[in-house]
Design goal:
One of its GO terms (cellular component) is inner dynein arm. Keywords: Cytoplasm, Repeat, WD repeat. By secondary structure, the protein is an alpha+beta fold. The chain has 14 helices and 36 strands. The strands form nine sheets. A five-stranded mixed beta sheet has the order 6-7-8-9-13, with no helix packed on it. The protein has a four-stranded antiparallel beta sheet with strand order 1-4-3-2. It has a four-stranded antiparallel beta sheet with strand order 5-36-35-34. Strand 34 and strand 35 form a beta hairpin. The chain is elongated, with a radius of gyration of 59 Å.
Length: 763
């Protein structure tokens, strides 16, 4: 343990007495060595055998080369026991006589051998020529020294001395400053420099590989594997096939609706010429620029908010403008008055420079609509929430350019529409020519509004949509629908839905004067008839509708006496078009039961709500029956198809959807998210499967559902700014227009091509 030639050993008191190595008597800490003969230890091993204390080291004892073994008393238990035995003669000598004593003995021997000290004698110096170099490098003073003698005046010797304080900077003789400066004499320039360079050869690694050509088949012939008739019958009647068809039926149907299945039998070669241009170099689908309207006085730095075509006079289009504000900014500024003049401009195709009529408003207009039964009445909703009415019957001759209407072109299907057309003397489909423009004055007349709603009872926010109810019913306070002749109810909404009535001053059967005279009592005191708020089912949070769709219904009504003929309704040109109109008595009104009052609305959060406007007995708010959260941004378009009464289009944010009444699990068609935002939309008036979408990059997407249902079939750039509104109009059976407005205050009138205006068979 710790030394290869030292083995610890335990010697009992009996063994110590036998070998005369008793502790503190024969051996001590200072005299710890004890030599024991090898023969005595072997004799003890033979006598005591296993009991002997030397039995653990018997092999060491037997192999020991000497006659005597050294046993050392380990008083400090350095090796773990009270004694240890040394197994070699060399180790024995080192322990008994340490190496230090041996070295001292050697030193003593060497000292005796050395010679006695002899003093050193210096040797004479021998010159080798170095003194000459020392003399050359030594500095010698060759300049003659100047001697100075400094003495003091004799009279100052022994004179008393007086010490005073003095600033060193004040005196000129007692202070000298030696400033440091750069001495160019001692500037060192580097004239030579050792630089090590090493040339390294260019190394390029190149490799080559043998090209092994792989074998190719020169020709391959396939032979189909066909099942036998028995195998076919067994496969068709198997339960596994029925379960598979049942499990994938719903997924395949959805994929077919979304146009996600590729036609494996589609002939690409035949379809190469589908999207090519026609023979005249123009594409088959395009929107041709017809005219553009703008005005530096009223439309400069403003955005067009709404566009409407005149219902009966072809070539007349009306636009309204507002400040270029976002929807959030409109809400913040809805209660503030603006300094500029807010108007509605009526343009004619015959004079694209000067407006034909200017309707003055109290505030910026967000939306407006012509009355369907009386086009001379215009209702508008303002940004501050007020409702405004105009009567343009006095300017009907200017708009129609004094051109009479042939009797055979009058449509006899609707009595109210016929009366309006005859009163204004307009022939549908006839565009006024430039020769018919009045030459007497180029300044358009300014028409002031005839009625405006009260600010206290108006909308609290911007009026975002306006709808005229059908002309054959009237809404009472109990929400009963009755037959009525005149279109006298306007429905508008912003954060809630309000019904506005335009009643006569006296409910009696006598001829009425102009609407402006009838509506004088409404100015600044006009109040809504009914207010409807949409709330959550379990909360008081309002939905905040932005767009609305009323369900088209066929209403039956009866009036006293026989119906008037078309010729009897006609009035002279110079008389008022309303001289034959009279308010029906309430006694002749029949309450219509089982009338559907359902409607669709879209709110600012992109939610589509299907609800009922009929009041409940215990509350004055409508509860939504169905809610769809599809769009991520504000609904900007909610429009019913002109061909299908139960189908409508919704646009908001980056996607669009087509809905169908009665389908409660969502839209029947939904587009994927586009890169840009959709800002406006319009159904085609000629083709059921075509609609137009305006984007924020100034492009118009043309969707043709007969060609593609997952993406627009064509697109065309119209403006450099955001498209704000789209409206479709018809001038003649062969001429169809699309009015597109942008954020720069420019109205673009585009002519729709023949491909988009002529429907295919059974479309």
């Amino acid at each position: 343990i710790g030394h290869p030639e030292i083995f610890p050993l335990v010697l009992t008191t009996k063994t110590q007495e036998i070998f005369n190595c008793r502790v503190d008597e024969d051996v001590t800490e200072e005299n710890c060595f004890k030599t024991i003969k090898k023969e005595d230890i072997i004799q003890d091993l033979e006598t005591r055998a296993h009991i002997s204390d030397f039995y653990p080291v018997r092999k060491v004892v037997l192999e020991y080369p000497g006659e005597e073994l050294l046993v050392v008393f380990d008083a400090k238990f350095q090796y773990g026991q009270n004694f240890y035995i040394v197994a070699s003669e060399e180790a024995k000598e080192n322990l008994v006589k340490p190496p230090e004593t041996a070295e001292e003995e050697k030193e003593e021997d060497t000292e005796e051998i050395l010679d006695p000290f002899k003093p050193l004698v210096p040797k004479p110096w021998v010159s080798l020529g170095s003194e000459k170099e020392v003399e050359e490098e030594s500095v010698k003073d060759n300049v003659t020294k100047i001697k100075f003698k400094i003495s003091r005046v004799r009279r100052n010797f022994g004179a008393p001395i007086a010490f005073t304080d003095k600033n060193a900077s004040h005196g000129t003789d007692g202070y000298v400053e030696c400033t440091s400066y750069e001495d160019k004499t001692f500037s060192i320039k580097m004239l030579e420099k050792d630089v090590g360079l090493q040339i390294v050869p260019k190394v390029r690694v190149a490799s080559t590989q043998t090209k092994w050509t792989y074998p190719k088949n020169a020709a391959t012939q396939y032979c189909p594997r066909q099942l036998s008739e028995e195998e076919k019958a067994e496969s068709l009647s198997s339960e596994k096939l029925k379960e598979f068809l049942t499990s994938v039926h719903l997924r395949v149907e959805i994929a077919l609706q979304q146009n996600e299945i590729m036609n494996a039998f589609f002939d690409d070669w035949k379809a190469l010429a589908d999207d090519k241009s026609s023979s005249d170099g123009k594409p088959d689908v395009y929107l041709k620029a017809h005219q553009s309207f703008t005005n530096q006085q009223y439309l400069k730095d403003r955005t067009i908010s709404c566009v409407c075509w005149h219902p009966t006079i072809s070539g007349i289009i009306a636009v309204s403008a507002r400040e270029q504000l976002s929807y959030e900014e409109q809400i913040k500024l809805s209660k503030k008055s603006l300094l500029h003049q807010s108007v509605i401009l009526l343009w004619s195709f015959s004079d694209p420079i000067h407006p034909q009529l200017i309707l003055e408003s109290c505030e910026d207009i967000y939306c407006f609509q012509f009355s369907p039964s009386d086009p001379n009445i215009i209702a508008a909703g303002c940004i501050n929430g007020q409702v405004v009415l105009w009567d343009i019957s006095q300017h009907g001759e200017k708009l129609q350019n004094e051109k009479p209407v042939p009797e055979e072109v009058v449509n006899s299907d609707s009595e109210a529409t016929t009366a309006a057309e005859v009163a204004t003397k307009v022939s549908p489909g006839v565009v006024p020519s430039p020769m018919q423009v009045q030459q007497s004055s180029t300044e358009p007349p300014l028409v002031k509004y005839c009625a405006v709603s009260s600010r206290e009872y108006s909308h609290k926010k911007t009026v975002t949509d306006i709808q005229w109810l059908p002309s054959n019913f009237k809404v009472s306070l109990k929400i009963h629908f009755s037959s009525f002749y005149w279109n006298n109810i306007i429905q508008l909404f912003c954060s809630s839905i309000l019904f506005w009535d335009i009643p006569a001053t006296e409910h009696q059967e006598k001829p009425l004067s102009r609407v402006s005279d009838t509506s004088k009592h409404l100015d600044l005191s006009w109040k809504p008839l009914i207010k409807i708020s949409l709330h959550e089912r379990d909360a008081n949070t309002e939905y905040g509708p932005i767009r609305i769709i009323l369900r088209e219904l066929h209403y039956r009504y009866k009036t006293s006496g026989k119906a008037k003929s078309v010729s009897a309704v006609k009035a002279p040109a110079k008389e008022s078009p309303y001289t034959e109109m009279s308010s029906s008595s309430s006694k002749n009104l029949e309450v219509l039961e089982n009338i559907s009052t359902n409607f669709f609305v879209g709110n600012e959060d992109g939610v589509i709500v299907y609800s009922d406007w009929k009041m409940k007995i215990d509350t004055n708010s409508a509860k939504p029956t169905q809610k769809y959260s599809l769009h991520t941004e504000t609904i900007n378009t909610l429009q019913r198809s002109p061909f299908f009464r139960d189908t409508f289009l919704s646009i908001g944010g980056h996607n669009l959807a087509i809905w169908k009444e009665g389908v409660t699990n969502g839209p029947i068609l939904q587009s994927s998210c586009s890169a840009g935002r959709y800002t406006a939309g319009q159904w085609s008036l000629e083709r059921p499967g075509v609609f137009f979408i305006g984007r924020d990059d100034g492009n118009i997407d043309i969707w043709d559902l007969l060609k593609k249902t997952h993406e627009p079939s064509h697109f065309q750039n119209i403006s450099k700014s955001v498209i704000t509104f789209i409206s479709a109009g018809t001038a003649s059976p062969k001429q169809h227009f699309l009015a597109v407005s942008d954020n720069l205050g420019v109205l673009h009138v585009l002519e729709i091509c023949q491909t988009l205006s002529h429907p295919s068979s059974n479309e």
